[in-house]
From TrEMBL:
Organism of this sequence: Pseudonocardia sulfidoxydans NBRC 16205
GO terms classed as biological process: methylglyoxal catabolic process to D-lactate via S-lactoyl-glutathione
Protein name: Dimethylallyltransferase
Residues of the DJ-1/PfpI domain: 31-228
Keyword Isomerase: no
Source organism superkingdom: Bacteria
CDD domains the UniProt entry points to: GATase1_Hsp31_like
Keyword set, alphabetical order: Transferase
Gene Ontology CC annotations of this record: cytoplasm
GO function terms (MF aspect): glyoxalase III activity; transferase activity
Length: 233
């Protein structure tokens, strides 16, 4: 019997428009989707997948490259593909009832800085989730999606909260800082988040109440483990 349901919210973006007008191909980052999925399923939860319009985002090809994403990259790619294939058509964000879920997970890839950060349906979902004490997890570029949660006056729900996200240093090291319309960690701080970061590409996680965040792909599984521990309390 399932302990409950976990919602993984994916971006629907496949390109990231740069400041010079060029398009950078993007998609979901395999480890950030597959590692939490694996951890939650092993812990006895059922996982649903949703996105804006129910669009299935492609895989970020860099997340399949062991030289970039680490030696486990092929396993994460296979697991993510299998999980998405078995689930079938993604749910639409505008049809989600957050009361049906024990937790919501926001993985990265650059997509969240393209669409999720300003998605009104996600904003309403996260606002309801936070108000109800639902566990929220966001990793790497996933915390960009938290920016969608603003009230009628434009105030950001997560201002003042402690969190981490893909750092500006990591963006520079990855080669995508120059030409980026905005940098995630700097923007989170400008909006009022208490953002902190650890060494580049090393595991770093932050918890603030029901909000769990991870800095980079390596932080995905530890974030899920912390969420599962919180749900068990």
């Amino acid at each position: 019997m399932s302990k409950g349901k976990i919602l993984i919210v994916m971006s629907a973006a496949d390109v990231w428009r740069r400041t010079d007008g060029s398009d950078y191909p993007t998609g979901y980052w395999a480890e950030e989707l597959a590692a939490p999925y694996e951890r939650f399923v092993q812990a006895g939860y059922t996982v649903d997948f949703a996105s804006p319009g129910g669009v299935l985002q492609p895989l970020d090809k860099y997340s399949a490259d062991p030289e970039i994403a680490g030696p486990e990259a092929p396993r994460w790619v296979e697991l993510a593909h299998q999980a998405l294939q078995e689930f079938g058509p993604l749910l639409r964000l505008d049809e989600i009832d957050i009361d049906n879920y024990a937790a919501v997970v926001l993985p990265g890839g650059h997509g969240p800085v393209v669409d999720l950060y300003q998605d009104a349906d996600l904003g309403r979902l996260l606002t309801a989730a936070d108000a109800g004490g639902t566990v929220i997890g966001a990793v790497c570029h996933g915390p960009a999606a938290l920016l969608s949660a603003v009230d009628a006056e434009g105030e950001w729900l997560f201002a003042g909260r402690e969190m981490t996200a893909f750092t500006d240093e990591e963006e520079q090291m990855f080669g995508t800082a120059e030409g980026a319309p905005w940098l995630l960690a700097s923007t989170l701080r400008e909006k009022g988040a208490k953002h902190s970061g650890g060494p580049a590409y090393q595991v770093y996680n932050v918890q603030d109440g029901n909000l769990f965040t991870g800095q980079n792909p390596a932080s995905s599984a530890p974030m899920a483990d912390a969420m599962i521990a919180a749900l068990a309390r």
